[in-house]
Amino acid sequence: MRSLQERFGVSQRRACRVLGQQRSTQRQPPKKATEEEGRLVARMLELVRKHPRYGYRRIWALLRREGWRVNRKRVHRLWRQQGLRVPRKQRKKRRLGSSANSCVRRPAEHKDHVWAWDFLHDRTSDGRALKWFTLVDEYTRECLALEVERGMTARAVVTVLSGVVRGRGVPAHIRSDNGPEFIAKAIRAWMASAGLETLYIDPGAPWENGYAESFNGKVRDELLNAEEFGSVLEAQVLAKEWKREYNHVRPHSSLGYRTPAEYGAMVPRADSAALRRPEEPSVTVDPTLTAPGP
Fold it and tell me: Is the overall model pTM greater than 0.90, yes or no?
């Protein structure tokens, strides 16, 4: 437009009328990409390479946590300009949990009210089995335990739970499926000694333990599917690092893009639950009790 004005010596109004354009389109010329935007894109690409399963909203939250003064729309624009995308998963339709112990019927009401636990299975690069034990607080979404071994018996699960309970106290409930590890004698004996109620979901209805299933999906998507484990020790080291990052770095969309640790520090624990911190004998297990293998 400016070149036409200079060439023919006409006003902006006349040039716009001849070309059929609104004068408002000439008010603010488009800005070229600045050096600051180049740094922003570079940092965004670094985060995407580090977290390939994160979408633009979570990348935006990480940038904001680092001090970048950028809104979500701008990150989305740059995301699209760079041709970035996260492959969509096909989601299966799930019906409302019908069991009285489902996460819909009996939701967590406060911190350490309901914990959820489950197992995941994977393999090392030599084809040998790995068994992962996950434990999450349903209210704060904090990962309380992420343990991996070749196989985990109920006695090993009790050892992990005892350590978590000594640090946080006994929850009101713990939700699980009816797997052999969760109904073993060692588990039931420990539950009775700790005064803890187990919420067993209906068989064949994993959606009733939705928080554990959701967390397990993140573990598999961001850790198990992204890493090749050469040994149990390597898996344990990476599990420890992933757990730290999940609790203290990874923004959680359900928590207003706060980390689980941040949200957990904001919400108090119910007084009734805080008083239920067990004495040392309450987390011991009778050595005569046995449990099924992995």
Answer: no
